[in-house]
Amino acid sequence: MLKTPTARLSEYSLSAGCGMIGHSLSLQNVTKRFGHLTAIDGISFDVRPREFISVIGPSGCGKSTLFNIIGGFLGGYEGTLLLDGKAKVPRRSIGMVFQEESTFPWRTTLQNVAFPLEVAGVPKKEREARARELISLVGLTGFENSYPAEMSGGMRQRTAIARTLAFDPQVLLMDEPFAALDDQTRLLVGDKVLQIHQQLNQTSLLITHNITEAVQLSDRVIVMTYRPGRVKRIVDIDLPRPRTSEIVGSARFGALVGSIWNDLRKEASRGMSEAEQQGKREA
Question: What CATH number is attached to the domain comprising 227?
Fold first, then answer.
């Protein structure tokens, strides 16, 4: 029987401390071509239930292509994408947080977070109660009636995350959501994301170019090659949880960042060299 939005909300009541049930995501030999250009080639990896995975790679490695395939915006690819073992992935199953500013400037924080539930026809009292729970979860209690222009960039991104979580997506997909933030704010917002992940047991996938961010947040980091994008290495992040940004100062954190940087440096250098050769041929 199809469950109503109200029924789904009652199942996942944050105030009851139930948390979300993690879901699995699997990419099997995914390849995407644009004419003669192969953007990603044979990408295969699994995201286990409640796992936090980061995908990192140099510019031009196909991270955005991968994001659009997983998010359901891009078809025409080879290979298989599975959600909980099923090939037909409803778009609403994947909650997406983008790099670009996505809050509605004419809506308050409460109205922004409640928007997906409003569209779904959830009664006002219920959707506002749900929105308040999520606002508390992302640490914005007291800013319910503030407009985006009155808040910092980090606060606006937390609003966007809360809005994305409002309808209980099975997988949270983030595309460089903190790229516009300064380093200090980025680390602090990362702490909040870790708290959300821990409380909701949310299966999460982050696409980023920031090594520190990837190591701070993740259970595993998938390192991609330069174009065509392939999986170069999967790094287990063996740092204890629960985790905060304090871990950034540890020796093990530094070793993991250095190891991933060695891979990325080689791929970025290859990309730069190919770009220079292309420029010489066109000159």
Answer: 3.40.50.300
Question: DSSP label at 4?
Answer: P
Residue 86 lies in a domain: no
Q: Which contacts (CB < 8 Å, 24+ apart) does range 42-47 have?
A: 42/79, 42/230, 43/79, 43/229, 43/230, 43/231, 44/79, 44/231, 45/222, 45/231, 45/234, 47/171, 47/203, 47/205
Q: What is the pLDDT of residues 172-207, one digit of tens each?
A: 999 988 888 888 888 888 999 999 988 888 899 999
Domain of residue 130: give its range.
Answer: 46-60+91-282
Q: Are 43 and 231 in contact (CB under 8 A)?
A: yes
**CA–CA distance, 50 with 136 (Å, rounded to integer):** 21
pLDDT of amino acid 276: 66
List, in sequence order, every beta strand (DSSP E) within the chain.
25-34, 37-47, 52-56, 78-83, 94-97, 171-175, 203-208, 220-224, 231-236
76 falls within a domain: no
Check if the beta carbon of residue 162 is closer than 8 Å to that of residue 134: yes
pTM: 0.86
- Cα torsion 7, 12, 17, 19 to 10°: value is 160
pLDDT (tens digit per residue) in 116-141: 999 989 999 999 999 999 999 999 99
What is the model's pLDDT at position 115?
Answer: 95
Question: How many folded domains does the chain comprise?
Answer: 1
